[in-house]
Amino acid sequence: xxxxxxxxxxxxxxxxxxxxxxxxxxxxxxxxxxxxxxxxxxxxxxxxxxxxxxxxxxxxxxxxxxxxxxxxxxxxxxxxxxxxxxxxxxxxxxxxxxxxxxxxxxxxxxxxxxxxxxxxxxxxxxxxxxxxxxxxxxxxxxxxxxxxxxxxxxxxxxxxxxxxxxxxxxxxxxxxxxxxxx
Length: 182
Hints:
Order of helices and strands: HHHHHHHHHH
Helix content: over 70%
Number of helices: 10
Strand content: under 5%
Mean pLDDT: 81
Distance between the termini: 51 Å
Shape: elongated
Structural class: mainly alpha
Number of strands: 0
Radius of gyration: 21 Å
């Protein structure tokens, strides 16, 4: 995996520093993540995501944290491990996530239930058709992430996330209303 992370770095000096950090921190980071998620595959995912984030932002972060990135990296791994647990703990009902997006609610008649199910499938396909920057924040919001958590995970400001959520909901609402007009 180290080769993968190093391929993300442009400068040779960054590669040497990153390789040293990798060797110094990988075991302790895995131990940290295991303590949070309790499952080795999930812990390995958290550590991998932490290293990917660090590699993607290495030049900027190494300038900002001139004393070293070890502590920052461990915070990244801890956050990612907690985020891996979060969707399991709190899944919001689709109604809450997609508020203001009209769709037919199911009733006791089989015909209306079928129509409501088809409508929901349409809404889901409309979400999947959104541009990635909007789809990602909406999907994370639907799984219970707050705007602040999404912002931290995506490297965006909370305001940008809130605006993308607003726009994503509006795009889906417009698409649903367009289907209603047909």
